[in-house]
Amino acid sequence: MQAIEASQREAIKAGREPQVARLMQLSAVGMRSAWLLDKELFSWRNFRNRRQVAGCVGLTSTPYASGESETEQGISKAGNRQVRSLLVELAWCRLRYQPESTLSQWFAKRFAQGGKRLRRIGIVAVARRLVIALWRYLQDGVIPEGARLKAIA
Question: Are 17 and 138 a contacting pair, CB within 8 Å?
């Protein structure tokens, strides 16, 4: 494992992994998470809009409508399970390490005062918004609002 991580660090320092390096510039995103996001999601797929990004990781809603019955069944979970769980963890890290960001303030205003179940629903919404913000950051260079950047070590 140490040899793999050393080769990954070497590739980042040599400039062979520019998207990984850009993701690592964001606070609360480390080498492993940046590497996984790049290799599993961003490096070989071309997304046209935010719905495709969220759908790829299974963070889209699944409505059910039949006749007069309309209910929401939760998220689809049709995408990459590893990336989806990583995004939820990154969302929690975002709330913890960047409480002044727009996304963290949105969560605090909308979900933080609720119970445990409401916070879990809210963190999935934060994860969806986070993956879209990361895609925009890599695609267009738009830094997520309120995000802190760090120097790569």
Answer: no
